[in-house]
Amino acid sequence: MKNQIVLLAALMIPWFSSAQTQVNGIVTDKSGNPISGANVYLEGTYDGASTVADGSFYFETSESGTNTLVISVLGYEPHYEMGEIGYFKNLNIVLVEAINQLTGVTLSAGTFEAGDNSKVSVLKPLDIVTTAGVAGDFVAALQTLPGTTTVNEDGRLFVRGGAAGETQVFIDGLRVFQPFNATANNVPTRGRFSPFLFKGITFSTGGYSAEYGQALSSVLLLNTTDVPDQEKTDISAMSVGGGLGHTEIWGDASLSFNTQYINLSPYETLIPSTQGMRWNSPFESIAGEAIFRLRGDKSIFKLYTGFNYANFDIEQEDINFEDFVRFRLRNNNLYYNSTYKHFFDNDWTLNVGGSISWDTNDIGLLENTIATTETASHVKLKVKKTFNRRFTVNVGTEVFNVDYEETFTAPDGFTFDNNFDDLLWAGFMEGDIFFSNDFALKLGGRVEHTSVLEEFTFSPRLSLAYKSGKDSQFSLAYGDFYQNPLTEVLKFDQRLGLEKTTHYILNYQYLKNGKTFRVEGYYKDYDHLIKFDTELPQFDSQYTNEGFGYAAGLDVFWRDNKSVRDLDYWISYSYLDTERDFQNFSTAATPNFAPRHSFSLVTKYWVEKLKSQIGFTYNYASGRPYENPNTPGFLNERTKAFHNLSINWAYLIDQQKILYFSVNNVLGINNISGYQYANTPNADGIFDRRTITPPADSFFFVGFFWTISDDKKSNQLDNL
Amino acid sequence: MKTLFKKESPQNHTIIKKAFLLFCFSVSLFATAQDQYIAGMKKAMALWDEDKITEAANLFERIAMAEEDNWIPYYFVAQVNTVSSFGLKDEAVLTQRLEKAKEFVDIAKRLSPDNAEILVLEAMINTAWITYDGATYGMTLSGKNTQLYNKAMALAPDNPRVVFSKANWDMGTARFFGKDPAPYCKDVEKALELFATFESDIPFYPNWGADRAKQVLEECKS
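Structure tokens for the assembled complex are given below, as produced in the milestone run.
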């Protein structure tokens, strides 16, 4: 029995003989400022305390032996001290600031984001599509941001003195080979994708990550939604067609699809486009997109597919022909994109994906026909590892394959084939290092090899960001960018080299209470641009890589959605100074797509009483250069300035029904894109000219959008 | 063990005594742990009542970390952080608190899956974001909230907090779209009836909501 008493006593010792040990100390940050409210405790026990105003803490514990003291507080990395309980006296604990993605420095030079993350997004998904004058095309919304120039008759993105072909589009990191609808000259195109299926859009106007290549000026990154919120059906009826969308969820799997039929015939019958053209058969298109998602415990699988059929027949004025010139086009585009993402333990992430597209065009130009087929694919593998939120490494490799075939057939039966097959391999590696919440660095490089040109390139990329104040930061970016010559050239000559740009960007950003101010200065150096010696690239042209150029400018952005209740507005201004000697230029000059000053003002006002959002957008671009063969010099005349005022009105009939009305160029201003001069002078020795104007000055749009969902609250405001 | 049972008393007798003593001891240890839990939770609740937000949140967190498999303290860490974030203007602080709340709600969900109380709290975190910046978070989070409330309703249709929170959310949405929130008043009334009878034998089971529901019902009537 004695033994038992001894045993019992021994077991009870920690409880009875609770010689209370004191634990105390002080918690500060790196600069010695006290941190109050920190939770200091012995791991696995209730024993602990919070630090008071002077950063000190004190508590008593009955624990003994080796223990772990945990110090945790919001905004700092947790701190652990291990040791004998008696050692935890007069401690001086210095906490290291945690890297905060929201309030810390961001690597933002050259980048505009539209997404759910409020800190880095300049625009929200909703903004992109509720902008007046955009009519559902998110690319048009991006044209209200600085760094882009309005090229009214084209519709694609022209970034910082770059031509439209210098921008590439990616969905979930995979290349989209034909992001824009096929169209005729002087008839603006639209993006193929509805904003419906995307959760975030990143638009980089330069200095972008080593993960992306083959774009001299800019990349546009679209990310599809991971998990849809709810099942719903969207129905739309518009003056130009109709659409149907649906989202179905089965546990971890979901499917969304969106289809649209567009036919301009009824509109053209009512309000014909008459300026320099007439439709034989107005634009008609059928488009469908679907995305399937499967979410696992630690993985996400997505399969995206898009199909697009477009058809039109148009006759356009041409100074060199008596009659209008007929142009017919039938385009089929099928695109698949599949990605798999797996999250491993220890912060490893694996991304694999592939995209493939088939694009065919049947073109009729005068009496000739041109049939083109492009099969293109992209396969990518990427691994990411994050160390302690401070250091992230991205390593990846990718392969692009483009197989292009074209057959030209003349009315007399003469045929001519052009084709090329390119296999491009690339590898990239990039590190993001956050030294503190005030200073971050992105450093990377990209290696590419292209089979068609048999050339190796290496592109360094660097981006730095320094937080200069609570609400402001400076960023710097530098990088080399290479791109294959465009298909129009590559199909005729495969002995050329890659075109190159170097970007230098300096950015200042101020963000406070719903106000955003950004100013970005840049310099772009172009080299090895393609030149040829004919009016347009032809099979018998002489091609060289001897072109060059530069673009320098300043982009300013201001947005405020807090100062005036229910009013949200943004202002963009771009100054652009650029000259280049490329294509068939006789000397270095400012190209037609580069106005010196561009300005946009976008406003949106919510009128509670009318349950309406009313918006207007004003665009201005100074005169664009054009070449007048009647005067000496090259490309030294300017068109008159471009003005466009668009309005829209979205009326919520009820929570799920919206009536939408918009007018593009409500003032009916006659804008001029440029002039076409005759190839040969007339009897007086003067080259005659024709003014190039949009097919119609103004465009009206009426739509009705109806959403049917479980919660009876969703609507398609974000689709407009 | 085999050898133990082969042996005769008094050895056997000693073993039984030993086992009894050990049993007593472990009961006392268990009781001590339970007492400690109750004392700790009471103290944390008292701190919260005194508006000592940080101290309360820190103590709940210490309890949560020590208990490990009890969802209740995790729930309270999340709740203190969420409730105290309403009305904050500093985005950095707000984000820290709501991210902390989300982290602890996620752990609570793992410890107690399909728990309607935790889903309601998760919806409350989303509501805090929407309240802070409706333009940014309204579109994405309101759909999620609707789903959370629907799921909570399916799990626990007679839980007064579920019924009341859903009604309150529906009223807010109706007001946002300029609709009459009155149809949801009867749900608030139903919630109040449920509040009167709701009981749980789990210590410190969430019990908030009745006062706010009364307030909302007053607004309904006026």
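Residues 32 and 156 of chain B are 33 Å apart (CA to CA). DSSP finds ten helices and no strands in chain B. Further analysis is deferred to the final report.
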